[in-house]
């Protein structure tokens, strides 16, 4: 019997084929096939590999260039892990709220996707402008995340921008590194969990620091 993570997932889903997760609706009881489960699992791993790796590189850079924020994050990691006997787990990283700030601010500065493309499903009018059905329009995430009217000093790394009281001052759509709505990134929570586990492991033992070759700024082509 195989015991890879995907095999375990398949067996678990087969045993729970009456759950809402596997139903299209109560009448048809359409479940995921083994092939569909395997395909989605591989998609999660492959589609999130490069983008997550890039985000971790940018986080490492931002922390190395801003040691006071790195120290604050390390203190949070140490404090939380002390409450869990040093165990890094889903439960422990879920309590690391300042780490969420660091991740969100890095994704604001360096979003994995610089724009979103959408197709209008029907005619839509906004402030006198009509968008016809079938028109493809783009939302410039990079420009949105670097708008000085929304984020003063937009090119500065400031994790405190994402404190709860600060977020309440902005529109919910001012920060959309994973998109938004029904077609947002399906792997968002998986990617965030990967990042938090990595940072918890690394920063509980080491620190990031710059060297003579570290650029003061990163130019994105």
From TrEMBL:
Xref: PANTHER family: CYTOCHROME P450 FAMILY 3 (PTHR24302), FATTY-ACID PEROXYGENASE (PTHR24302:SF15)
Keyword terms: Heme, Iron, Metal-binding, Monooxygenase, Oxidoreductase
Alphabetized GO MF terms: heme binding; iron ion binding; oxidoreductase activity, acting on paired donors, with incorporation or reduction of molecular oxygen; steroid hydroxylase activity
InterPro entries: Cyt_P450 (IPR001128), Cyt_P450_CS (IPR017972), Cyt_P450_E_grp-IV (IPR002403), Cyt_P450_sf (IPR036396), Cytochrome_P450_3A (IPR050705)
Function: Cytochromes P450 are a group of heme-thiolate monooxygenases. They oxidize a variety of structurally unrelated compounds, including steroids, fatty acids, and xenobiotics.
Record: residues binding heme: 185
Organism: Brachionus plicatilis
KW Cytoplasm (keyword) present: no
Cofactor(s) listed: heme
Similarity comment text for this entry: Belongs to the cytochrome P450 family.
Top-level taxon in the UniProt lineage: Eukaryota
Protein name as catalogued: Cytochrome p450 06718
